[in-house]
Design a protein that fits this description.
8-stranded mixed beta sheet, 318 residues, elongated, alpha/beta, single chain
Length: 318
């Protein structure tokens, strides 16, 4: 096995381990749902609906999956419960494929311009700053020149934490005094990154949602100021969500998508939780691709989201 194959094997093992509790919980519920049944009937579908909802897939996405399975059962006339796993797997994979058209295998960025600018949003406590640090590490490992912008100027801890990550990874962090205008920090970051021919810029932002109008205005101002330096910035607005919070992550995603145009998502803290099904529902309901998933504390434990590998791990396939 070559070096690339060993790396992919390790990555899959990390994913399997990270989703272990979700996978075990999911299948124990499915086993109970079909107990004593030989074919898929209304009772089995009702039980399966409950399994998906209690696995944090979400009500609307669950109903969509059940409807698709009902159509297949009606078409095929007779479907055994032993076939149900395969059908369920296919329908979940199909749903994820609708919004995650590419399975990412590397940390490449568009080559038509640089720097590539990612504006990172999300409420406090979801692992936003940590995700930025891990992204910086992965991009640097891939040979990219990375700049970080500490535009969450309302929390001293956020700026300090980003600076610690910058030192750990070995990338520059642009910051100002506490309480400074976040748009000013974004301007300084992009100006410096452009002058130094950076490949990628990650901008941290405040995680307040209690004042939606204030947050909306703040993000609009940050974007407007960015465009003075780079007309196409930001290239990406990435929402970070804590997967271990299940339905709360759904609500945060809805609220943020109402405030700004989200173009990608990173779902963190999927290790040690049984709520990994939330990835399916959030991707389906927001129609936004999941780009990264967090599976541990280590710098290398932030992975590019690969829908096929995710489904394989969810269904316990090695």
């Amino acid at each position: 096995m070559g070096l690339f194959g060993i790396f992919n094997k390790k990555k899959k093992e990390t994913l399997d381990k990270g989703l272990e509790r979700t996978q075990q919980s999911f299948f124990s519920k499915i086993t109970k749902a079909v107990a004593g049944k030989s074919k898929v009937d209304d009772d089995v579908l009702d039980n399966l609906e409950e399994v998906l909802i209690t696995s944090d897939v979400g009500v609307e996405t669950t109903l969509k999956i059940i409807e698709r399975i009902e159509e297949r059962v009606a078409r095929d006339k007779y479907v055994t419960t032993s076939e149900l796993n395969g059908i369920l797997r296919e329908e979940i994979a199909s749903l994820l494929a609708e919004n995650n058209t590419n399975d990412n295998d590397d940390w490449d960025l568009p080559t038509d311009h640089k720097p590539y600018v990612i504006l990172v949003v999300g409420v406090n406590g979801v692992g936003k700053t940590t995700t930025i640090g891990k992204l910086a590490y992965q991009f640097k490992q891939a040979g990219k020149k990375v700049y970080l912008g500490a535009a969450d100027t309302f929390r001293a801890a956020a700026v300090e934490q980003l600076c610690i990550w910058g030192e750990r990874v070995g990338v520059p962090v642009i910051k100002q005094q506490m309480g400074s205008d976040p748009a000013s920090v974004a301007f300084d970051t992009l100006t410096s990154a452009k002058a130094n021919q950076a490949d990628v810029v990650l901008i941290d932002t405040a995680g307040r949602l209690h004042n939606k109008v204030g947050l909306m205005n703040e993000l609009k101002k940050v974007k407007a100021v960015m465009k003075k330096v780079l007309p196409d910035a930001p290239d990406e607005v990435m929402l970070v969500l804590d997967g271990s919070t299940g339905q709360n992550a759904f609500e945060q995603a809805k609220q943020f998508s109402a405030v700004t145009n989200i173009t990608s998502m990173a779902i963190t803290k999927l290790d040690g939780t049984a709520k990994g099904g939330v990835v399916i529902g959030i991707s389906d309901q927001l129609k936004v691709p999941v780009k990264y998933i967090g599976l541990g504390e280590g710098m290398e434990d932030l992975q590019l989201f690969n829908k096929q590998q995710f489904v394989d791990s969810l269904f316990g396939e090695k």
